[in-house]
Amino acid sequence: MSTILLATEKPFAKDAVEKISKVITNAGHTVQLLENYTDKAQLCEAVKDAAAVIVRSDIVDADVINAGNQLKIVVRAGAGYDNLDLNAATAKNVVCMNTPGQNANAVAECAFGMMLYMARKQFSGSSGTELRGKKLGIIGYGNIGRYMAQIGRGFGMEVFAYKRNMDRLALQIDGVTPASSFEDIFEHCEYVSLHIPSTAETKGVINMHLLKLLPKNGMLVNTARLDVVNETDLLQLMGERNDITYVSDFVPKMEAAFNEKFAKRIFYPAKKMGAQTEEANVNAGIAAAKQIIDFLDKGIDTFRVN
Ligand code: 3PG
């Protein structure tokens, strides 16, 4: 019997926590819960006796890994695992996994909802624009990108996507036009939605070179990661062009500057909300619990990322 810590600074829905706990206890393991914590020291303390940890965007750095005396596995209940220090984990022989696809629909609905909200000028009374007939460009065509394309097509948008090593035929079967580059997307699509991970390669990749290509009334939608967008360049462009809008699932690093100058052309929730639905919480949390049980009990390491 092992202890599995569910550590969420931004908690899952109550129903999801109950279902995740049931999966763990039915498999003969024990659940330890740490929610709404405010300090890394609390996570380090909680992880001491755990064999496994389930987290969301919680930072699992070398201090946390090293505090886990019994730690064997960390599962990020979600897609992006840039919050896990993979080198520190590997050095301590701790397996890291994610749960790809489990919260993808929630993130796509959030991205599209925020996009629609801003296209309609935040329902402020001013005339907005319709999405039908407009071009939606998707950068990164994975699980979230695919859902985004489906919703866009449902709204009558023309959908383009770019993916590294893309299967052009698969995109065409989805009714999506394969784009040849990031530039191709930015040049032709009024709405550009980002669905790429944060890696050394993608940091700041959405820069002035691309942003300035946006057609009139261009909107950038970022539910990917904060650091893929070069905020200095975006601020500059929004200053030069009053038709550009930015929606994001993250509070910008340069929040004050954006708000001071462009309050009506930017939208972001106070907390990252993309995956914050009961369904996504249940799907990702249960997938994480099952992956941990399979690993602890049978050594199965599907979805390992280190
Ligand atoms: C993900 O990478 O899965 C999403 O960004 C969701 O993150 P969250 O679990 O912190 O809401």
Structure description:
The chain contains twelve helices and twelve strands. The two termini are 25 Å apart. Strand 10 (219-222), helix 10 and strand 11 (245-248) form a beta-alpha-beta unit. It has helices at 14-26, 40-47, 62-67, 86-91, 104-119, 143-154, 168-173, 182-188, 208-211, 231-240, 255-262, 278-298; strands spanning 3-8, 30-35, 52-55, 73-76, 95-98, 135-139, 158-162, 177-178, 191-194, 219-222, 245-248, 266-267. The protein is elongated. With 306 residues, it is an alpha/beta fold. The structure holds 3-phosphoglyceric acid. The site of 3-phosphoglyceric acid (3PG) has 12 residues, from loops.
Features:
single chain; 306 residues; alpha/beta; Rossmann fold; 2 domains; 5-stranded parallel beta sheet; binds 3-phosphoglyceric acid
Strand content: 15-25%
Could you say what the CATH architecture of the largest domain is? 3-Layer(aba) Sandwich
Q: What's the level 1 CATH class of the largest domain?
A: Alpha Beta
Uncertain stretches: none
Major beta-sheet overview: 7 strands, parallel
Distance between the termini: 25 Å
Bound molecules: 3-phosphoglyceric acid
Radius of gyration of CA atoms, rounded to a whole number: 20 Å
Helical residue percent band: 25-40%
Q: Count of DSSP helices?
A: 12
Number of distinct beta strands: 12
The SSE order reads EHEHEHEHEHEHEHEHEHEHEHEH
> Any idea of the CATH topology of the largest domain?
Rossmann fold
The total domain count is 2
Mean pLDDT: 97
Cross-sheet strand order for the largest sheet: 8-7-6-9-10-11-12
